[in-house]
Amino acid sequence: MLKKLRVDIENQQRTVKIPTGLRMLIRRCCHAVLELENFDGNAQVDVTLVDNDRIHQVNMEQRGIDAPTDVLSFPLGENGEYDVHPETEEVMLGNIVLSLEQAEKQAADYGHSFNREVGYLTVHSMLHLLGYDHVQGGLEAVRMREKEETVMKQVGLPRGSSYVLEDS
User: Fold this and answer.
1) Pick the CATH number of 2-154 from 3.40.390.30, 3.10.150.10, 3.20.20.220, 3.30.1330.10
2) pTM strictly above 0.70
């Protein structure tokens, strides 16, 4: 059972104003994925919010792809084996780099809320950190998509939703 999840979020962009509640939504999405996967123990995830120029640069440096993208996942584990922080005993799952500029564009393109897009990209990336992959297509891609939608419903952002987080 998931005991504690630390999600460190760093904003390295100034292009998109971060709406109230977005950081909490990112944390809820990360938590929901780990709950769905019956993750056991303490965990840590780092999320970096960037603009299209920065994610383009990272995509080129890390993957050799000369284009911006919406989100990149950098898992720190393989085959369910992860490094554990010696002091906190947190399993270090990896890093998520998310372009808020691209998320804003895609939300408009797909006709749903910015929060839903950021939530979806966070869930998608978390599944990559846990070893899921859709690149080859087939059954694995279908399983990943089903898990994404399950988590999105769980956090109140089902497909076709125009959900807006209220300040609490």
Assistant:
1) 3.40.390.30
2) yes
